[in-house]
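Input.
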Amino acid sequence: MHFFNKILFPMDLSHASPQIAPYVSAMATKFEAEVHLLFVVRVFEHFASLHLPDATIKSIEAEVARRGEEKLREFMEAFFMTDSCKVKVAFGDPAGEILKYVELEGIDLIIIGTHGKKGIERALFGSVANRIVKKSPVPVLTVNPHGRPVE
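Output.
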């Protein structure tokens, strides 16, 4: 019996992501699970106050999504077996989109880093990992990317 058939690794594509990948890979191997890599692009609608045209904002979002998917695919090829891995770019609030993805894809386990982006962004948006742990309907494994490496 496999407890975890689908593992979600939500990523911010920061320096911390490669530190978390070995944990995801080990769990996926142990449970013969499919890995889902998810990158959430924050919606740029708050730029409207800068009087940027909607077309410009949508163009920026599309380019960020395109580059995000490119980076996810590169990451997948570097760290995971590509035949048992899916990539997805979503738009919106990271915690909300992660939880929505869990429901839509039937995810059994989330593995998320406790530290990704730093400084003002973390202070403004709060800890995504903390919100996921509190609201997730499935088990969550949190990994401190600055902790002891996996052997």
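DSSP finds five helices and five strands in the chain.
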